[in-house]
């Protein structure tokens, strides 16, 4: 297989540049409005990583990719997917992330149902506690995720939770009391939020609402 040379700037190593050689793409993990993510192996370390490839076709695509990168560079926490590095050229934007080997929470729950298995109360509380701790960590960093759903809650090892996918996340300004734009994945909206969306539908041009609609396709 053709080797892919990706230059990575590590945030932990100030002013240093390392080169990752990705010579094995194992499989596609998922495809969304903002890019395709692959499970890859880095040649020099043998480490499995998640490699998100975003196709850039406009200045707006690049702006959104850079905005997601800004969020990832800010994120730090045991229950949050960690940023490893990034690289961009004229037509594509690459982000290297933690690989979560147990998939996402939606797949986990579907597998349980198909196998006629259930979680104990302790297991449920363990998952919920980790998710709450992850959200608390984000809020302490002034980050609002804005698209929390089972597909964005990932699992590693023995049900270790990591929240990821910060494509719609925003940094809250200290002077800002509320975020009034509606975004996210519609099927996970609360009834109250759906009512607000119907009331505001005449505005029509909200950028974040457009992005949310793209997510659903």
UniProtKB/TrEMBL annotation:
The kind of enzyme this is, by top-level EC class, is: transferase
Q: What is its EC number?
A: 2.7.11.1
Task: List the Gene3D superfamilies hit by this protein, alphabetically.
Answer: Transferase(Phosphotransferase) domain 1
Compositional bias, Acidic residues, is annotated for: 194-209
Q: Which PROSITE patterns match?
A: PROTEIN_KINASE_DOM (PS50011), PROTEIN_KINASE_ST (PS00108)
Q: Where is this region: Disordered?
A: 194-217
Which GO terms of the molecular function aspect are on file? ATP binding; protein serine/threonine kinase activity
List UniProt keywords, sorted A-Z: ATP-binding, Kinase, Nucleotide-binding, Serine/threonine-protein kinase, Transferase
- Where would I find the Protein kinase domain in this sequence? 23-217
The answer to keyword ATP-binding applying to this record is yes
The answer to keyword ATP-binding applying to this record is yes
**Which reactions are catalysed by this chain?**
L-seryl-[protein] + ATP = O-phospho-L-seryl-[protein] + ADP + H(+); L-threonyl-[protein] + ATP = O-phospho-L-threonyl-[protein] + ADP + H(+)
Record's protein name: non-specific serine/threonine protein kinase
